[in-house]
User: Fold this.
Amino acid sequence: MDSRPTAYITIEEESTAEFTDRGSRFLAYALPIPSEEAFRDRLRGLRKDHPKAAHHCFAWRLGTDGHRFRASDDGEPPGSAGRPILGQLDSRGVTNAGIIVVRYFGGTLLGVPGLIHAYRSAAALALQIVPLVEKPIEDLWRLDFDYTLVNEVMTVLKRHGCTLVRQEMQLFCQFTVGIPRRSLDACLPQLRGMYGVEMQPA
Assistant:
């Protein structure tokens, strides 16, 4: 029995929220991210949009295994910004997403406990106003088959909600497909049962 998770939680649209404390403004941006590069691009954009902000702190998590993440305090005391932001992503079980909190200093020092509360609160507000979406986790497979089988193969893929990642179609076809884990036990036997279809994990 496959005990791996079959779905993950993410967001599909960007949201913005603001938290204020003793004159300091904390602008939180929650955003879906397909890659670390995409996150860095958005961070660069926000740095340009808010050049006079004191800090641009952030956290992100990618993938469904929980291993890829990063948190940055961007000059705030260690552990006072990035980790509280990441904690909000993790408390909601969200991945393939990031939160950037832009701080405008209000003239009053908040202290480490105050900063932790402010960054945590700003991040939580941004996540509260954006819908959380459950998406299936897919395993990639490569299919090789004769062109005459295209319709039969596509019928099975559509029936099980598979994603066509890449295709090369000539006399002989090669597909890379994402098969939802929850559908593997039903989908794989149907594909393997087609004469002339060769399969292997991609």
Notes: Helices lie at 36-49, 82-91, 111-128, 150-159, 184-192.
